[in-house]
Amino acid sequence: MVESSLYEKLAKLFENEMNLILSKSILGTTDAVSLTKFVDDFCKTYLKSEVGECLYAGLSVGVSFGLKLKNGQEIFLKINKPNNDDSIAQCSFEGMNAISRVQEKLSEYKFPCPKIIMPPIEYRDVIVTVNSYEDIGTQKDAHNPSIRKVIAEKYAELIKLTNPYINTDGFKYFNFYKNEKLFPAPHNALFDFNKAGTAATWIDNIASRSKEIINSIPENLVLGHCDWSLKHFRFINDEIVMIYDWDSLSLQDEYHLLGIAASTFTTTWDIPVKITPSQNEAYEFVREYENVRGKKFTKEELMKISACSTYIMAYTARCELAVDPNNNNFEGSFRQALSKMVGDNYLGI
After folding, report:
1. Which branch of life, at top level (predicted)?
2. ∠264-268-272 over CA atoms, to 5°?
């Protein structure tokens, strides 16, 4: 079969129960045969070629494939399900189109992101994006100060580059901190926050205090990548040569985005490193970003950044607890980092 490599990768993925849950929530199916046909039909219809080889397959917020087509073209195809809930990972066709236009500009500026092969397509109740497949470089340990510095500085550079496109049609600001619920809807089907009960009370108390501070300080809207974490970075020596996951580009509060980045820039499960930054590392990340930003943060802005960082760590801790209710994997987790936090916010401000 032409699609055998793709089918085999999917069949292997579907041996994992979590992947079955994710596939069902995104595509409504866990059948490797029908999903293989879905991808091949799309490629034949829109790219005029059958799938030859599957170079990569993975599931998270979306379903992603690195594919080599029979015509020799290598693509990265991602399937996302539209949603209109209060999720931390909102997705709409209009929003994906806006992302595509800005990503195309970033690529023209030689910013390290994949090229756009075609604009997003609404296809059988989902949204399909097609980028160039960029398998380049390696991951590096972001606990290394020089790697941390380049990740922080690259983020400030991104915010500057995207500033002219902040009013692009399709971007919509969503402030989930104003929601009455403590947390937004989890970003994928694996995380049920209702299961934890009183085991999550200490985490929720931290999040609640942080949220109160966040809502007391005005925002500064920018276009930024809301998952600026090590898992999406590839390096040659100490230079960033590729950054992935551009459906995470969103119109958001700069202090919120920087808070996410400061608390997750070390996060990856692909190489053996600690996924959480120390409090000092998170603080230094913000200062290194600030140096390239060109304008100092006020004390109040730093308080908000730290509150956002702390809140996101609490959100992530809740995600961990949802799939690890007995804390079997507590060591090195966001739960552990929060439990050892000195002071009432992660940047110590």
Report:
1. Bacteria
2. 125
